[in-house]
Amino acid sequence: MSQFYQIHPENPQLRLIHRAVEIIQKGGVVVFPTDSTYALGCHLSDRQAVERVRQIRQLSDKHHMTLVCRNLSELGVYARVEDNRAFRLIKSHTPGPYTFLLKATKEVPKRLSHPKRKSIGIRIPDNKILQTLLMELGEPLMSTSLILPGEQEALMDPFEMRERLEHQVDLIVDGGYGGNEPTTMIDLFEGDATILREGLGSIE
Fold first, then answer.
1. In Å, what is the CA distance from 160 to each residue of 98, 121, 164, 184, 199?
2. Other C-beta atoms within 10 Å of 142: how many?
3. Secondary structure of residue 79 in the 3-state scheme
4. Cα(3)–Cα(5) distance, integer angstroms
5. pTM above 0.85?
6. Does 1 or 92 have the greater pLDDT score?
7. How many CA within 13 A on the CB side of residue 186?
8. Taking Cα atoms as reference points, which of 67, 81, 96, 88 lies closest to residue 202?
């Protein structure tokens, strides 16, 4: 049965954040809020936990996983930004509800990047709970939107998440009722920006 932590969205309780970090470091699969939808994630280097996430969502190895990062410096460790225009675009839209597809560096485990394209989704979220969790963890989290098989939208109610997932995940972080609009996804793999999905982030 999963743990269920109710964490204040503006003043996250550090004792609960520290417990969440311990669960992640021990191979746990967690549900957490972001600035768009709730997400499902785990430690990026834990093979077994990543496979559990794929099984819960029934994802193939061609599905783009995303790394949620603390800041631009951390983004640069895991992805290559091809030119200054792409860097300026990322800088001006982060933190925020955007996912950028970029070339993965060798720091990204192969099982997380696209098997043919070797790309990875990267985002810097504007969510106090998640940013605090990332700061205490000290590295990115592997994540994917909490959209269950056969459904079109992410779960929004943490208590429904508890009811449906308490035997499949190790922790549910309740940060309040979530949104159901995903991030805007921008492909910067070759440098030029291509909108792959219009979501919460403005494309103007």
1. 26, 27, 6, 25, 23
2. 27
3. strand
4. 7
5. yes
6. 92
7. 23
8. 96
